[in-house]
Amino acid sequence: MEGIAIIGMAGRFPGADDVAALWRNVLAGQVAARPLSEQQLRDAGVDPARIADPAYVRVAYGPQDIDRFDAGFFGFTPREAETMDPQHRLLLECCQQALDDGGHAPAQFDGLIGVYAGVGTPAYMIRNLLPEPGLIDAIGTLQFSIGNEKSFAATKVSFKLGLQGPSVNVDTACSTSLVAVHQACQSLLSFECDMALAGGVSLNVPVDEGYQFHEGGIVASDGLCRPFDHRSQGTVKGAGAGIVLLKRLDDAIADGDRVYAVIKGSAVNNDGAQKVGFTAASVDGQAAVIAQALGVSGVPADSIGYVEAHGTGTQLGDPVEIAALSEAYRATTARTQYCALGALKANIGHLDIAAGVAGLIKAAKAVEQGVLPPATHFEAPNPAIDFPSSPFYVPTQATPWPASFDARRAAVSSFGIGGTNAHVILEQAPLPAPPPAPAPVQVHPAHGTPTARSQLLVASAKSAAALADTVEALATALADGGVDIADAAFTLQAGRSHHRFRCAVACADGASAADALRREMARAGREVHSKKRRVVFMFPGQGAQHAGMCRGLYEHERVFRQTLDECADLLRPELDCDVRDILFADDDPRLKQTRYTQSALFCVEYALACQLQAWGIQPDLLIGHSLGEYVAACVSGVLGLEDAIKVVARRGALLDALAPGGMLVVPLSEAALQQTLADGGEATAGCVAAVVNAPTLCVAAGPVEALERLRDRLAPRTECHLLPASHAFHSPMMDPALSAFGDVMRGVRLLAPRIPLVSNVTGRLLAPEEATSAAYWVRHLREPVRFADGMDTVLDGGAAVLIEVGPGVTLTTLARQQPGIDAHVVCSSLRHPRDASSDHAALMAGLAQAWMAGVEIDWRAFNQARRGRRVGLPGVAFERRRHWIAAPGQIMPAEVLPPALAATAAAPSGVLPRDEMERTVAEVWQAQFGIARIYVDQDFFELGGHSLLAARILVALEERTGVRLTIADLFGAPTVAGLANRLLLAQVDGADDALLARLLAEIEGAPEPLAG
After folding, report:
1. Nearest to 731 by CA among 775, 767, 685, 772
2. Is 827 a catalytic residue?
3. Among 626, 759, 828, 829, which one carries the catalytic annotation?
4. Is residue 310 annotated as a catalytic residue, yes or no?
5. Catalytic (active site) residue 626
6. Considering the entire predicted model, what is its pTM?
7. Choosing from 310, 447, 625, 883, which is the catalytic residue?
8. Which CATH class is domain 916-1004?
9. CATH homologous superfamily of domain 536-541+596-658+729-835?
């Protein structure tokens, strides 16, 4: 058998909310028995006569808070959640947690994911729901069945998590979950799926309930299970859930998965009629399935170091199990007492449906950690078991796995009433390959010391409270530095589903990551905009350049480096030098010369735009600032790269040959600046308003001496400063170059933009006839840059994420000064020269801001050259709330919400119904959704609506109003207000004009017409 890797595990157990807590309890020998007081039992609805019975055992083994569930996370309405079997709910949660633990998000996984699972008797349905008068009629028979029947448990997981592999409900009584694991392995080996979730859930309802002891039965009289011990009296009833995520071993290794253990072989059989009764155990049947699993695995029995037994702790069952194990092992070995034996039921009771997978999880942890766990409660052997002549012994303390074994191997048994037996052989995971070598740093000869690669950590949830919990758990896990930060980043990017509430940071190590995550969470506004924001690329112009810009990107990002290399090769004939020598030098004077500056900036900005696009960040709109418009034109397809390189280089050379000039930043409106220039007379002659950056921020251009006089003239009113510009761009001092530049533009091919582009000349979208006209580009060289008008055009198009694609924060700063910018998100992508961080850190920080604003990143492309490994990190936190219908006689304590949830629940968030029809619709919705208050603008689908619910709502509305609407009506107007309007309009069909006028007035809020 090819190995099957266990790459993810999750569960809820008595006394342990997760696998880590379970393993700690096992090592400590803790028992999860909860003594129950008389009051607890009365509140649970237990008959007082039973409580008073001396044979009633007042002990429970079960997980806490099974009445709570994150309905919204899985897209259920509160009504659906409270009428659903809590076993189905727990199965959903554990499957999501197992995927998170394994570092896989279904949406980012190429293969098929199967589900093999079983759930126990639907006790909640029997004890809580069926006695509720009118409940089935209220929610509908089909919905009631979907919510509670075993048949829908696995397929519900597949539907809610978007899994398209086989989805199979398994039911073989106590062996269900281990049989599910076996079937999942077979499905993987036959390539029916590429990953599989396997396990089961069993819950007692109510969870705070004891059990009745019967002499000669299988349950213990004192509430303690003592497998293999001379005091054993029987098992104890437990409840819980366990799920494992499985993948073919070769695939797991290739995908960089963490592997807990490897399933080397498994087998399933049935006792048939070779036993005394249907519920009895069979030595022959158990021995056969153990021998078969050993044969399939291809490992000798004397290489097994630990057996996780079925171990019910009954006087008859335990000796039968040891006899069967001994018979199977004696076929290949005569060694005695070399193999440790244990049974999880001593710690957490008999989990019934989930017992087998719980034992598998325990054994997998033992194999992974190299520890033989202690057998709780074991004092002396059951006299019916001859341990000294068997291969087995019972350890009473946790001990290291003996070094005498070549490999750590364990076996797990699970036997079901009715005779279906399952056995699984585990082996330790192969030694992990050495960490992948980081992508080689590409250093250009002009480089200084290479810079470190920064990492981008992302976290998300479906609510603000859940995000806070998710981020805090992640920060805690990273703070001690035990997780490689690059692997953590990869796991969070490629191994998580990404939700509406987001937090992201750039960091270099675990400690800084923890601090950064907590700081970022302290800021407001973590929710992604409900409607997709447009992405706008902004390209800065001359003045943004600085020594060493983009060095870190060239070292670490392949697409950026390849594109920059291509640009440098195309530029060499134009510049007679390698632009990379200029870019990467610590101080090259050529970077201050227009001829070289503009070409260098173009290369950096174009390469950065290509890198962002390679990561799936596609712009919806482009805007440049002066020179930056040529980058925008190239990205939009107006200019091909070779032509763009030629145009920019020759434009720079023409401008460099002009008489020097200067540019002065003036914090005035365009009108005020022009008036000041007019008032200056000869003193400011030759100066013009060359750039309008914001409503009260302009740049004047002209002779340096005249600009200095303008600065002095304005000094009493406002502070101005000269830019480090070599020439008076966008002024009459450009005129000598216009004719030659027109010739340059007429010599290249100009096309209509494929991506909308905002013009600096007009401030409007660049029209195709402008883009393809050489005259336009001549005007662009000479006329003022109307960036403020362009930003008006950008912002008028709706919510946007504006990304400055180039060095520094010039356009980021300018964008934040525009009216109405608060409705948008602005972020930079490369560092400012005074910023101590690296270019790569700045880019990752910019990506973090963009992702939090809803810009989606293609994580597969992002990690194409990163070769990360999946590591264990906390998954998404659930925002659990009570969804529970009490059984007759059951008293539920008042629900106490955590402060974050209480604040969320109390906050008003909409408009209440305003008229009788809206109140009618809202009341029907509230009854069907199970929500106490619904606002008129809340969306049917966002509340968890679906076609079955729509049909019930329409029937209820017809009963209330006499109007029959269709599902298309509801889907076309999916709010209370919209549906109320549809009902009112339907009522006017055939009505007289006066009634029609009154109804329209009610709908539209208009005054009724005067009579007469």
Report:
1. 685
2. no
3. 626
4. yes
5. yes
6. 0.87
7. 310
8. mainly alpha
9. Malonyl-Coenzyme A Acyl Carrier Protein, domain 2 (3.40.366.10)
